[in-house]
Design brief:
The chain is α+β, with helices and mostly antiparallel strands and 265 residues long. The chain is 22% helix and 45% strand. The protein has a single domain, classed as outer membrane lipoprotein receptor (LolB), chain A (Clam).
């Protein structure tokens, strides 16, 4: 009985401290825990990444195509509000790839063996918007930007899974809502709204992350799915993810022999 009388005040003190936690402080705690779950310093110091697997595209929710995909990513020095990252999405076997997408600081290209075509302005804007509002890019590159704020929406259930929900808002007042697993602390879902250039209203973009795998001290989702207005548009099943492979500049450079095409042809 004496021990119980001693424990009860301690429990009450913990509960009082938790209830006194502000929404901002709770959000920061959840995000800090997520960074640690992703690998802590190993995640934050990740320089490049190579993901290999199979990607699936969908049209009105129906499977449109599937292809072997290798995604090469290299992070650059962060600049507030800017995409400071190189990316190459190569389609087909790694040693035989003749088509894909290339995103560099000098240009954005859609290439095949016929040549490399610059992407149109809207496609570039969509890509940049997607990167800037990707939770992993935010955590790795943007978290300390001026004007970045975190706000907890509290705990909830998502698909019967306990989650902590956090709104992350940047200096342009654009918000990404992220669901973090209550037990493993990892991102499981994110949503944000993007203005539809054709109709002027907003599309809701949602991305789901699953089947995390630890490699080289970094936890990375091996299954990624993207929905637009609750309709599936893309899925990637990753077989392997490697980090800090010292990717060379040549990976993110168009071959000199590849013909450069114009946008309108």
């Amino acid at each position: 009985m004496k021990r119980l009388l001693w424990i009860l005040p301690a429990v009450a003190a913990v509960c009082a401290a938790q209830s006194a936690e502000t929404r901002q402080a709770r959000a920061k705690r959840v995000v800090d825990e997520a960074i640690q779950a992703l690998g802590g310093p190993a995640f934050m110091q990740m320089e490049d990444r190579v993901e290999t697997g199979r990607s699936y595209s969908f049209d009105n929710g129906k499977l449109y195509g599937t292809i072997l995909t290798t995604i090469y990513t290299r992070y650059l020095k962060p600049v507030p509000g800017k995409v400071e990252m190189l990316e190459k999405d190569a389609y087909g076997k790694q040693d035989e790839s003749s088509s894909g997408l290339l995103f560099t600081m000098d240009g954005y290209w859609d290439y095949t063996f016929h040549g490399a075509r610059p992407m149109d302005d809207q496609r570039i804007a969509n890509y940049q918007d997607s990167v800037l509002h990707n939770i992993f890019y935010i955590l790795r590159q943007r978290l300390n930007e001026p004007g970045m704020s975190l706000y907890s929406e509290g705990a909830d259930l998502w698909e019967n899974r306990p989650v902590e929900i956090v709104d992350i808002t940047d200096a342009d007042n654009k918000t990404v809502t992220v669901y973090f697993g209550k037990s493993d602390k990892l991102p499981v879902r994110q949503t944000y709204r993007r203005r539809n250039p054709t109709y002027g209203d907003f599309d809701t973009e949602a991305t789901l992350f699953a089947k995390y795998h630890e490699s080289q001290g970094i936890n990375w989702p091996m299954d990624i799915r993207r929905d637009r207005n609750s309709v599936k548009i893309y899925e990637m099943y990753t077989d392997s993810a490697e980090f800090n492979t010292d990717l060379k500049d040549s990976v993110f450079t168009l071959p000199s022999k590849l013909k450069k095409l114009s946008k309108d042809k």
